[in-house]
Amino acid sequence: MKAPAFDFTQAQSVPDAVALLADTARFTKPLAGGQSLGPMLNLRVAFPEHLIGVRQIEALRHAFIDPANGELVLGAAVRHAQIEDGLIPDVTRGLLAHVAANIAYRAVRNRGTVGGSLAHADPAADWVNTMPLLGARIVVAGPDGEREIDARTFMTGPFTTALDEPELLVAVRVPALSDAARWAYVKFCRKPGEFAEAVGGVLIDRPRAVGRLLIGATDGAPVVLEAPTELLAASSTDSQVAEHWTDDRLRAAINAAGIGHDPYVAQLHLTMARRAIVAALA
Amino acid sequence: MDHDIARARPLSTTGVGASLPRKEDRRFLAGEGEFVGNIKLPGMLHVAFARSAVAHGRVLAIHKPAGFEGAVFTMADLEAGSPPVGPIRVLSSLPGFKPSSQWPLARDKVRQVGEPIAMCVAATRAEAEDIADAVVVDIEDLPAVVDMLQARDAPPALVHEEWGDNIFLETLVEGGLKGDEFEALKGSAAVKVHRRLRTARQSMAPMEGRGVVCTWNTRLDQLEMYTAAQMPHINRAGLSETLGIDQASIRVIAPDVGGGFGYKGILLPEEICLAWLTRHIGRPVKWIEDRREQLIANTNCREHHYDITVYADARGRLLAIDCDSVIDSGAYSSYPFSACLEAAQVGSILPGPYKMEAFRCRTWSVSTNKPPILPYRGVARAGVCFAIETLIDAAALAAGVEPHEARLASLIEPDEMPYDNITRKHFDSGDYPEAIRRAMEAIDLPAWRARQGTPEPDGRLIGVGHAVFCEQAAHGTSVYYGWGIPMVPGHEQCGARMTPDGRLELRIGAQSHGQSLETTLAQVANEILGIDPAHVRLVHGDTGVTPYSTGTWGSRSMVMSGGAVAEACTLMVERVRDIAAHLFQVPLDQVVLAQGRVSDRAGVQSLTLAELAHVWYRQPQRLPPGVNPAGLEVIGGYKARVDTGTFSYACHAVAVAVDPGTGAVELLDYVIVEDAGTLVNPMVVDGQIYGGTAQGIGTALFEEMRYDSQGQPLASTLADYMLPGATEVPAPRIIHMETRSPYTTFGQKGMGEGGAIAPGAAIANAVNDALRPLGAELTELPMSPRRVMAAIAAAGSAAGAVAGRGAA
Q: Are B662 and A268 an interchain contact pair (Cβ–Cβ within 8 Å)?
C-alpha cells in the first residue's frame, strides 16, 4: 500500500493555488490535511498526477467574526482540533465544538481540516452535515474571484460538490445563533471515531425564524427539512416546531432520500432524527 | 478439590507463581523490538505481488509489462528452476480427505480474490507495486462458489474439478446410545430445541501482518529467512518439501512477532516465492504484507454453520446432541494444519464439559472461492461454544429453569475427574460447577433480574447471560497422530547452557510472540535452579540454534516448553552438584543447591553458580579426575505423563444493554471465572485473558469478513472490517481458581486461547435474554446492530409465534 508517484507543489496564496489547479494538462487536486486523500493515495484508489498543498496558505488558516454581520468566517485550513479545543470564536452555542470533538480520532482531528472534509464530501462525515444544519455558506475562490454557495446545496451527491474546477474552497461563513437557539447533533457509529451510519440534527432558533431538521449520512447529500414559517412565529413554542416532524414526515423524507428500501438503514435514520428532536428540547 | 493449591505454596517472588514483570517489555516499550519490517539487509530488493481480481477463473495468459520482463516472475519461472518449485499439498490420513494443490503462484486457475499470480521485484515497494499494477492477466471467469451450504448442496462450480464435489472431508462422530436407543431417547425427551446457527468468517488481524526477508548465505550454502512465524521449524520443513532442498540448507528465524493467533502458523506461498527469488537473483529480498493483502488475500477463520438439536429432561439436564455442521474451509488446505482440522475438531469437542447419553455430529469441510481458513485463537471452540451454550440456554428456557441451573445439572462433577467424556476426551481435572457458581455470585444474577423488572429510563433492554467452556491445550501425540497431517507434536526439548559467568541460556523450539515466554520460562529456571530470572536468556524462534519443535500453537508452550525447561534445569542441577562434589571433595549426597548457591551440607564450603561456572570453564585445573566431562550444557526433554492435553476452563458472565432503536449492544459488566491450574505468572495469565476476551468480543459483536455473490471481499480496510477497540472492551473482572493438572510439571495448564472462546456465546445469551420480552432471538454472529434490528423486526412480524419460540 504505497502511493503511486505524483508531483507536489506548495501553493503560496489562494490565487497561486487557483492558478495551479487550473492546469488541465494534468489531473490536479488540492491537498489540505490529507486525512482522506492520504489513505486514498496509499490504497491506490486516487491517482492524481499533481497535488497542490493548500494547508499552509496563510489566508486559509484563520477564523474570525465578521463585524458586519456577526458571522463566523472559518478558514478552510482550520483544523478540527482547533475547534474542539475552543480556539475558534463560537457563534453556535457550542455546536461546532461538540461536532469537532467527535470527528474520528484525535490524531485525525490534529491534521484534518474543515475545508478538506467539506470538499471531499463523504456523506458520513460531520461538516457536510453540520454546515447545512447551521445554514452556513461555503466561500469558494476561482479565477474570477470569490462566490458563496449555500451549504444546503453545496453537496450534490456522494463525494461530489458544487465546486467547479479550478475553484478552491477557502472559507465557511457560519451565521450566529440567537441566545434562544436550541440544537442537537447525534450520530450512530459502530465505534467512537468511525464514520457515522446515521446522523440526526436539529436546530430551532425562532428569533431567526429557523426550525430545521437534518437527516445525514445518507447515500448522498443530507436531507434538510425546514419547519413551516408559521410555526416559527413568536407565539409558537419550540415543542410545536418539533411536533411538526412526525414519524410519517421523517419516513417520507428518508424514502425520498432513496434510503428507505433498507429497513435497518431507514430505522437508524428515524431513530437518530427522533433522538435529535428529544435532545434539542431537553 | 484443591482449587487453591497455589496458595498453599510458599509465595515466590521470582519463580513459579510470581507476577514477575515481563522481561520483554523493556525493548518493546522503548521501541527497540526487532520485527521483520525492521530488518534491512545490504542490497535488499522489495517484492509486491500481482494478485487475482476475481474469485474463480482460468488463467489464460500472464503478460509481463514491457521493459520489466526481468522483474516479474510467474509459476512458470519457479517451475523452470532446478529443482522445480512444487505446490503446497497438505495430506491428511483421515478417510476420504481430498487434498488440494496450492501453487505458490497461480498456475492454471485462480480460486480466490487475492491469490498471488506474479511476483514483482524492485528497489522500493512503491516501484514493485507499480510493476504489479502493470501486469495484465487474461482470466476466463468461472462462477464463484461463495456460500458453504450452496457449495455443498448445489454448487455453481467446482473449486477443485478433479474432486467431483466441493467437500474436503466429511466426518461422523458418535457416542453413547445409538440407533433405536438414540431414537427412543429423542422421542421421550421432555425438552427438544432446534436451531440453525451461523458464525461469520473472520480475519485474524494481528497488529503486525506477515512478512518475509530472506537471503542465500553462500558461505553456509543456506537459505536464511526471517519470517513472522509461530512455528519456524514447521516452516522449514514445508519450505524444504516445496523447494526440493534439504532442511539443513534452510534456516528460519522468527524475530519479534507482533501477534500470531494462528494467522502465522502456516507455510506461506510468499515464503516459497521469496526463497526461490533470492537464490535466483542473488539479492536479499523483502515482502511485507500490507493491511489490504491481510484482509482480502490471506487466510481467514471461523466460518461455521450448525443445524443442531439438543434434547434435555424436564429440568433442563442435557440428554443428547444431534448436529450437522458445515465449515467453510475456503479454497485451499493450508500447511500444516490442513482444511480438515476445524470441522474435525467441531465433531469431537461439541459436547464440551457436559455429560449426556447420546451424541451424534456430522461435519463437512467445504471448499469455496474464498481464502483458506486457519485455526484462530480458540480454534473451533468459539463456534462450538456459541452452538452448545445458546442451545443450553434455549433448553433451560423451555424447561422453565435458569440457564445456570441447566448447566449445573449437566456438567462433569469434580469428583468424577479425571473423566472421559462421550467423545472420549480425557478431562484431567477441574471443578466446572464451582466456576459457574462463582460467576453467578460475582455477576449478581438476582440484581440483574430485579433490574429487568423496571423499564430503563433510556428505553434500552437489559440482559444477562453466561457461557462455560473447556480449553484443551498442549495436545500431544496421542491426539494428533490420528489427523495424519504434516505435523505431530511429540517430545519437547530445551537446550540449557551455563555461561562462564554463571548466566543461563535456554534454547527452545517454540516461539514467543506475546506469550511472555522470555519471562515465564526464566521463572521456571528460577524455580529449579534458584538462578535470578534476570540472569536467564531465552533463545527462541531460530531453527539454526534451537531444538526441533512444532512451535507455539494450541496453548502448548507453558506446558511443553515449560516442562522441557524444568527437565533441562533439573539435569543442570545434577551437573552443578557433581562438579561441586568434586571441588568440595565431599560425597554427592552432601551437596545441595539452593537459592542459586551450591554448598556442602556441613555449611563449610559454598559457591555461587557464577563461581562454579568460572571454575568449570576457566580453571579446569582445579577439577579432580572423575568429574563428569559433559559439563554445563544439557538437553532436557519432556512429554506429559498423559499426553491428551490439559483442560483449562472458564465461565464468562456478562450483562448487556440493547438499544432497540439502533441495535447497539453495550457491555455493562463482564466477569470471568477462570481455572488454568497452577499459574506460572498470574499477571501474564490475566493479560492472555484480557487479550483473548477482546478478540472474543470482536467475534461476538463486530468482526465479519463479508463477500458478495461474485466472491469479492466487502472489507479491504479496517474502516470496513470492524475490530473492537479500547472503547468497546470493558475491563473484565477476573476471578481465578487453581485446580492443578495431575499430568504436568507444576500442575500448569495451557490457557492462551480461552478468553477468545466464550464471549460470542455469553454475549449472545445475554442479548437474547434482553430481547426475550420482544420475542426476538439472535442466531448469528456477530450480533451487529443490523442483525439485532432484523431479529427485532422478525419477531414483530411473527408476533403470534412468540410464545412457542423457546421450545420450537
A: yes
Tell whether A106 is within 8 A of chain B (Cβ).
no
CATH classification code of B491-638:
3.30.365.10
What is the DSSP pairing of strand B250-253 with strand B222-227?
parallel
Cβ-contact A188, A196 below 8 angstroms: yes
**What is the predicted pLDDT for the residue at B483?**
85
Looking at the partner chain, which of A3, A4, A190 has a beta carbon nearest the beta carbon of B722? A190
CB–CB contacts below 8 A, A to B: 59
User: Complex ipTM, two decimals?
Assistant: 0.96
Please tell me the predicted confidence (pLDDT) of residue B11: 63
Contact B724 A191 (CB under 8 A): yes
CB B201 within 8 A of CB B301: yes
What's the pLDDT tens digit per position in B564-621? 999 999 999 999 999 999 999 999 999 999 988 999 999 899 999 999 999 999 999 9
Domain ranges of chain B: 491-638
Backbone torsion region of residue A121, taken as left when φ is above 0, otherwise alpha when ψ lies between -120 and 50, otherwise beta: left
* DSSP 8-state class, residue B378: T
Q: What is the pLDDT of residue B723?
A: 96
pTM: 0.96
Report pLDDT for B482: 86
Dihedral of the alpha carbons of B306, B312, B316, B317, in degrees to the nearest 10: -110
Kindly state whether B124 is in contact with chain A, defined as any CB-CB distance less than 8 angstroms: yes
The answer to whether A194 contacts B719, with C-beta atoms less than 8 Å apart, is yes
Residue B126 and residue A43: Cβ atoms within 8 Å?
Answer: no
State residue A234's pLDDT score: 84
Q: Is residue A279 within 8 Å of A238, Cβ to Cβ? A: no
Sequence length of chain A is 282
Q: Which residues pair with A7 in a beta bridge?
A: A50
Mean pLDDT of B512-520: 97
A282 has a chain B CB within 8 A of its CB: no
Determine, for residues A1 and B292 on separate chains, whether the beta-carbon distance falls below 8 Å: yes
Distance CA A199, CA A214 (A): 8
Which ranges of chain A does DSSP label H, i.e. alpha helix?
14-21, 37-42, 80-84, 95-101, 106-111, 114-120, 127-134, 151-154, 238-243, 247-256, 263-281
First to last CA, chain A: 47
Question: Can you spell out the DSSP letters for A149-211?
Answer: EEHHHHEEETTEESPPTT-EEEEEEEPPPPTT-EEEEEEE-SSTTSPPSEEEEEEEEGGGTEE
Q: Is A191 on the interface with B (CB under 8 A)?
A: yes
Q: Which domains can be identified in chain A, with CATH numbers?
A: 7-53 (3.30.43.10), 58-174 (3.30.465.10), 182-281 (3.30.390.50)
State residue B528's pLDDT score. 96
